[in-house]
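Thread title: Can someone regenerate the structure for this chain?

I was given the following input by a collaborator and told the matching structure tokens would be attached. They weren't. Posting the sequence so someone can regenerate them.
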Amino acid sequence: MTWDNETGALAVLELLAQEAPPARFDELLPAALHSGADEAALTRLARATSLARTVLAGVERGRAREAALSALVDTAHDLTSPYDLDTLLRVITRRARRLLNFDMAYVSLRRPDGTSYVHTSEGDTTAVGVGLELGAGPTLGTLAQQRRAAVWSADYPSDDTVPHGPAVDEVVRAEGLHAVIAVPLRHGDSTLGALYCADRTVRHFTPDEVGVLLSLADLAAIAIQKAGQLERTRDEFAGLEQLNAATNTALTRVRHLWDCHARLVRLVLDGARLPAVARATADALDGVLQVRDAGGGVLTAADELPGLDEEAVDRAALQAHTGRSPVPLPGDVWVAPVTAGAENLGVLVLRASAPLTEEDVRLLELAAHSVAALLLIQRGTAAAEGPVRDELLQDLLSRPHRTDLDLRERTRRLGLDLDVPHVVVVARPEGGELGKAVAWASSYAYRHNGLKAVRRGRIVLLLPGEDASAAARRVSAELSPLLGHPVSTGAAGPARGAPSVASTYEEASRCLDALTALDGAGGSASLSELGFLGLLLSADHDVDAFIRATIGPVLEYDVTRQTELTHTLEAYYDSGCSPTHAAEALHVHPNTVSRRLERIAELLGEGWQKPARALDLQMALRLRRTRAVLQDRRGAPPES
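Best answer:
Regenerated them for you:
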């Protein structure tokens, strides 16, 4: 083929149309030279092939830009998804690495204190990467953030013109990297961190590649900011949800609190008695509750409260009344004051099954208010019914044998059952206002479903129960602090039936008189506590009861164990309390007597050798012996 201008031009255009590779253009000049083309034709052909290469390179760059722009558009679309920060940064590093065919890409984020750390990486082959602290020193990333422009090195390990940070150098060495570029994550006037891309070969970055990375970094910064806002919005929403849940819980608790309080108020207004209010409070607080009076006596209890530290309860009661609020004790025990104005009406003692919430403590306070209201209502009712109740007890004391239908009807209307055991307590204040004591007695009797009267300047209480001694101590313990003076109390009983009330009252009065004669003013005593003196003062002189109360444990031990403790005790007293002389009388070794006396001490308790107790023991032994002799004589045949 003959080469001329037209032939060369057509060949170049054909290759250009085919977008042939550069090697095909290089083949045109040798072919033209071989065909005998002249120098002018060769020059024009060389200029045409060079121009064609330039056109093809421009087309290639245009296509690369289009691909990069398309990738950026796709990236921008992807970044509009509601990613969390970790997922978003993984998307960014993956796009950066694949967009420009890098071996590795990672993102460092900047903290408020200026330090940076590697948050996410892509393409790494070692464990050095995510979580790596970059510090605040000079690195490619910090320089890029300062300049707000890309910073790169074609061969980072051997390039002394760029800053080297020890952490970045460690990653470069571990991963075998050479070319490294860092672009800032710009957001407004600040930067969030840097996007690093790297190759394991030497690579020179073109302006187009730098521009694409900067655009990607800007998109990433916007997405990171958006993700941060989304995360904050989620946190705020979660906080609002928690607040809403807490508010609903609080409202539920408050609603429960007021429902329980309303139920307690209804009980009080409906005329319920103290045990019903105490049970409702215990159920509402899921615990065991006691209502105690000002003296510490238990007015009512919802179940038992074993193992209470009474000293701690007393201290907590004082603290509760001083601070006018419930006081906690170990073991989920609470003591709440029951007050009316400045008057101390008692306390509530609660043992909860679980720690109390703030609303529970408030409910305990409200329950104490309800109990206080009930006690005041009872006091008012007692004052209104006082004359009727007082008249009934006066009749029982003045006309002991009256059991007519009218008396039964009067007791029924007052809710009394005199056929159950009752005790009589006679109290004499040793100072203070008697009127105040009488008003207290009316309320106390009403609260305990008993009766009250005043005789010879003494308060007489008829109370349900069988333990006269305990009743006397409770009355003294509650009335004495109220008056600020000692209160002497005598007690007797139990009495069963209306006819026995008067005789029981006489016994209680004799106990009080005996207590006064023995210089026991301010104390309390019952017939059983006065020993032999109580036997003399009793109306029926119950010798058997005195013997059982005094030496009963020793007698029972002898019967069940076939021992001689009673005989040993008699010999001990007969010998002037000498174990040696008692052993001689019993014909046993002195050690045997000592062991028996130790057993007697265990059965009778401490203080059995004190003079007053020893007198009762000796009298009981003599009465037992005398009764046995008399019974033997009554059972013996008459003498002829």
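Residues 127 and 602 are 80 Å apart (CA to CA).
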